[in-house]
Amino acid sequence: MTQTMTGAKMVVQALKDQGVEVVFGYPGGAVLPIYDELFLQNDIRHILVRHEQGAVHMAEGYARSTGKPGVVLVTSGPGATNAVTGIVDALMDSIPLVVLTGQVPTFMIGTDGFQEADTIGITRPCTKMNWLVKDTARLSETLHQAFHVATSGRPGPVLVDIPKDVQFATADYTPPGRARTDHYRPKREGDPAQILRLVEMIETAERPIFYTGGGVINAGPEASRTLRELVDATGFPCTSTLMGLGAYPASGANWIGMLGMHGLYEANLAMHGCDVMVNVGARFDDRITGRIKDFSPHSRKAHIDIDPSSINKVIRTEVPIVGDAGHVLRAVLALWTERGRRTNREAVAGWWARIREWRAVDCLAFRPSERTIKPQHAVARLEALTRGMDRYITTEVGQHQMWAAQFLHFDEPNRWMTSGGLGTMGYGFPASIGVQIAHPDALVINVAGEASWLMNMQEMGTAIQYRLPVKQFILNNERLGMVRQWQELLHGERYSHSWSEALPDFVKLAEAFGAKGIHCRDPRDLDDAIMEMIRHDGPVIFDCLVEKHENCFPMIPSGKPHNEMLLGEADTQGVIDAKGSVLV
Amino acid sequence: MSALNIRRGASSQSAYDLRDPNAPVTGSHTLAVIVENEPGVLARVIGLFSGRGYNIESLTVAEVDHAGHRSRITIVTTGTPQVIEQIKAQLERMVPVHMVRDLTVDGPAVQRELGLLKVAGRGEARIEALRLAEIFRANVVDSTLESFVFEITGTPEKIDAFADLMRPLGLCEMARTGVAALARGA
Ligand SMILES: Cc1ncc(C[n+]2csc(CCOP(=O)(O)OP(=O)(O)O)c2C)c(N)n1
Ligand SMILES: [Mg+2]
Question: Is A1 considered catalytic here?
Answer without folding.
Answer: no
